[in-house]
Amino acid sequence: MEVYNAKKAAPRGQAKAARVAKYGAMRFGEYAAEWKAGQRDLGPSSVAHLESLLSIHLLPLLGSRRMDTFDHKVVEGFIQTMERNGVGLAAQSNAFDKLKAILLDADRLGLFDDSPVLGVKAPQYDPKRVAIPSPAQLPGIRSAGDDSFRLVADLMSGCGMRNGEAFAVNLNNIVADDVYRISEQVNRTTGGYDRLKHRKPDEYRDVPLPAQTRRSIEWYAEKYGTFDGYLLRHPGDPSRPFPHYHIANQWQRIKRAGKTDIPDGMVVYSLRHLFASNCLTHGIPITDVAEWMGHKTIEVTYKIYRHLMPGSISKAAQTLNLDLIT
Fold this sequence. Notes:
Layout: H1 2-24, H2 28-37, H3 44-62, H4 72-84, H5 89-108, H6 138-142, H7 147-159, H8 163-167, E1 174-176, E2 179-182, E3 185-186, E4 193-194, E5 205-208, H9 211-224, E6 233-234, E7 237-241, H10 244-257, H11 270-281, H12 286-293, H13 298-305, H14 313-321
Antiparallel strand pairs: 1-2, 2-5, 3-4, 6-7
Helix pairs in contact: 2-3, 3-5, 4-5, 7-9, 7-11, 12-13
């Protein structure tokens, strides 16, 4: 019986050893590509979202790492790096969820003695924890960095742009005195201009352009000039797009200096949240806000910003009562 059990177990043990040898030496980027190919139940928008998370957050930091070197410290280090880079909590949470799914798949193949995500505290995205600067804090924040930081702050808080969209600001995209057309972004990974998130090439969205934000664009263009209409360029090479790290590095210096009134937990992306807050607290319909911010569904907007909407049951009862009084 012992001989029989040994013979029966040997092929299974050998098969596992072969899997561990094959996939353990594989780089994360290669493994993630195989894993992604197996996600056949995803719709086009979900595939685009997955590809965005991989290219922007996962592959730049983990793409060349061997699969058999993952442990909880590596995963925690990944989360801490996202925090240092000023990645928003929603993006942190989504990126961690995808990393966890990939590593659990590898764990089922037997690559790890202990799951690398076991015991790791996931980024806790809670809309009520979104740190948004107040109108009183905004002037100090926007003026705490250089002129490029000021322009980016004005674009994100005034038009609801994502970081990369603000970096691609172009004078030619002012399509009316009060309308800006967001048509591209600076891709964090490639450093080049790219299509918008959740959009096909050549798709765009038109957003409100407050007079103050338009004046900020025109002021910067007059002071520094443009390159094919683009305002922000690489500090060391004007022929190249504006790099993501330039604003991220300034933000870290501003926080370390401790001279600016900044709400706890605020990241640069919070300036975009300020746009949504400003819209919703002034009664602008959430359907319009979702369109202007480029969310793939209104449910995303509602989940993030529902607590900012000024409505309440009591207020609704008072409003509805106005036409019921006889």
